[in-house]
Amino acid sequence: MKLFDVYPLQPVTITKASGSYVWNDAGVRYLDMYGGHAVISIGHTHPHWVKRIEHQLETMAFYSNSVHLPIQEELADKLTRLSGKDNYQVFLCNSGAEANENALKLASFHNGRKKIIAFHKSFHGRTSLAVAATDNPSIIAPVNETDAVIFLPLNDAQALADCFQQNGDAISSVIIEGIQGVGGIRVANNEFLQLIRRYCDQYGAVMIADSVQCGYGRSGRFFAHDYAEIDADIYTMAKGMGNGFPVGGLLIAPHIRPKHGMLGTTFGGNPLACAAALGVLEVMESESLIPHALELSNYLMEQLRKIPQLMNIRGRGLMIGFDMPPELGTIKNRLLSEYHIFTGEAKPSVIRLLPALSLSQAQADDFLQALQQAIQTHSITTS
Ligand code: PLP
User: Fold this and answer.
1) Residue 213 CB less than 6 A away from ligand 1
2) Could you tell me if the CB of 135 is within 6 A of ligand 1?
3) pTM over 0.85, yes/no
4) Those residues with Cβ within 8 angstroms of residue 283's Cβ, 6 or more apart along the chain or in another chain
5) CA of 182, closest atom in ligand 1
6) In degrees rounded to 5, what are phi and psi of residue 178?
7) Nearest-5° Cα angle at 212, 203 to 210
8) Domains in the chain, please, with CATH?
9) If you measure from the C-alpha of residue 235 to the centroid of ligand 1, how many angstroms do you get, rounded to a whole number?
């Protein structure tokens, strides 16, 4: 049987991973500045995380949400402490799309409304509502088309004001990434997030902070939206939450009340996933990875700004993007094939850096040196 061919693949076979490195099937080591698409938060195969999962596997891998599972409460308590979202409730699921799908649905259950505001270049996942709120018509199947979603330009206060004035009483939710990932590392500015908060309060809409990619410490704060000093009504999480173990979740403000049967999942919140998620939070805390990410980010950005060919260096924490001039468009492939470094991209010419939060300064330096060399040798061969 063939694999359903939906992924354009890099010409590399990865068979081993540790920390910020991965190895191919010939034993060649690669520096992972892409974190398996922002998933690796505490480093590949972190020993504490592995032990946590192994222990849980030996004790009890699975039981369903029809019984009391204390490890879910342990995770909820730890999440409260690290995120600072006191009195929030948690709903556990399996992926980013599922988290957003549930958040949009929950908002609609909560206020009985149907309209959603999302933003240009957003990405919220591939399930029906999540994909409808994603600004990419090529991945929206005819069956997912809906007039429920209104797309507005990011950081455009006037467009937001006009939209609320016209549709205020129909708006169920506003969904926004703190930093757009797939859209090319575009930061939602603080004033804009504060404005969304104010309009949501005024009109009774639910503010959903999509933190699937920019959350879980990646930005240097637990949630990237925290930079605006506001609380969203719902935070959605996945990617870094499990460090590679599939787990997602929603943090839900106390005024949104649950009802039995309102949401549900077979696998969400299973003990193995909870063990993985707890392992991640424990390492984040014991290794102070969030402050480390912030510190290293300042260093990385400062150094990147010294490379004249790179444009619009932006981002927060270890979620960094920059534009490459068209003549250097092949740098990402060269970094991979010649320097054995994985980076991310966003079309048409953005390089995205999404390394593990445990990346060291020496590893950052190796990346910077390789990038400079790749740019220099490119200039030499083409001049
Ligand atoms: N939301 C954001 C901001 C994302 O970047 C992604 C995935 O890239 C998703 C949601 C969807 O997550 P998943 O692929 O786990 O469904």
Assistant:
1) yes
2) no
3) yes
4) 42, 46, 48, 49, 289
5) 5
6) -65, -40
7) 10
8) 14-45+291-382 (3.90.1150.10), 47-286 (3.40.640.10)
9) 13
Residue 374's φ and ψ, nearest 5 degrees, are: -60, -40
- Per-residue confidence in pLDDT tens, the chain, 383 aa: 999 999 999 999 999 999 999 999 999 999 999 999 999 999 999 999 999 999 999 999 999 999 999 999 999 999 999 999 999 999 999 999 999 999 999 999 999 999 999 999 999 999 999 999 999 999 999 999 999 999 999 999 999 999 999 999 999 999 999 999 999 999 999 999 999 999 999 999 999 999 999 999 999 999 999 999 999 999 999 999 999 999 999 999 999 999 999 999 999 999 999 999 999 999 999 999 999 999 999 999 999 999 999 999 999 999 999 999 988 888 999 999 999 999 999 888 899 999 999 999 999 999 999 999 999 997 666 65
Q: Quick one: which atom of ligand 1 is closest to the CA of 239?
A: 15
CB of 207 closer than 6 A to ligand 1?
A: no
Nearest CA residue ID for atom 5, ligand 1: 213
Asked if residue 335 lies in contact with residue 374, where contact means CB atoms within 8 angstroms, the answer is yes
Cα–ligand 1 centroid distance for 383 (angstroms): 41
Q: Which amino acid is at 310?
A: L
Residue 96 Cβ < 6 Å to ligand 1 = yes
